[in-house]
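Pasting as-is:
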Amino acid sequence: MSLTLQLPVEDGSLRHYALSQRTPVAPPAKPAFNRIAYSAAHVVAEPFAPIDPWLEAAIDWDATIAYRRRLWSMGLGVAEAMDTAQRGMGLDWTTSLELIRRSLDAARDYPGALVASGCGTDHLSPDAARSVDDVIRAYEEQMAAIEALGGKLILMASRALVRVARGPEDYERVYGRLLRQAKQPVILHWLGDMFDPALAGYWGTADLDRAMDTALGIIAANADKVDGIKISLLDKDKEIAMRRRLPPNVRMYTGDDFNYAELIAGDGEGAQPNHQQSDALLGIFDAIAPAASAALAELAAGNTSRFHEILAPTVPLSRHIFKAPTRFYKTGVVFMAWINGHQDHFVMVGGQQSTRSLPHFAQLFRLADDAGLIEQPELAARRMKHLLALHGIEA
């Protein structure tokens, strides 16, 4: 079939685009990394379920777990039931717990496979929260359920806590209580309001430096119960500043989908090894998994220049997927899985496939081609033409 398409551009006109047909980036057969790298993973919706998609979630469990096996085969861990899986944007707590259970079960087939699972308060409506104690009880309910499955926790930021907290001391109270009772060290999660506007002012203040002081104080007081912290502020200088202040052996997991390459590579500066580089917990790794795996293997082998060479073309792609409104980035992640044949349809939980425009998808398609992330050119072209036809472009 023809690998030339008519793609729209921002001014509404159409331009011919021919796929490069370059050899796609391939992950190593036996990946070995010197960083911990989690990919937050998306869920595959069940398009044939007789539900109201805005109100209910139906998951294709086989396709969803198959995607996680793909990530593990590339050496990547899975950050489960996070915002990439549309947690809080279509995926409720009951379905999230089932996802966590199935993912942990599947991981047992992969010796050494990493899974860390999102633990939050999303079954408690922020409007229903009346006190900090309500938030603590909600967190504890999810903690108990995940730990009963043998899961490692990612303590997700809480919309309900933002609503009821009066200041930093309430965050200290909540996190101190949770960390003291955690069965194993957890990953903390600081998600900026560009990802979720309801999280504005997290840690009790809109001042990011003061918020960082509060978070670091909580970590220092409970360092033996904190594996690391993931921050998603899209501000590399804030991440580096916080990284420099972490206690020894507490990891910085970059969640910066704009500057991940340089943050993971590190700068070699700082008093402790964990001050010099970031590990990773990234939504973009779902979309660029082959490149992420190949690059991390090169970094572990000491080939830093090759690491950057592989990841550099993925950065414009990531910045496009995560452009404002950033919370709609999941649509680009699922689009990538669809055009590359990892799911049979472009339908999302909550109907979220509608959150981006056709010109956005067209540019994403071009950038994926530039980055060597079109795995099957004929399939990708055919599926892109289907999407174009649905929007009235039949040529």
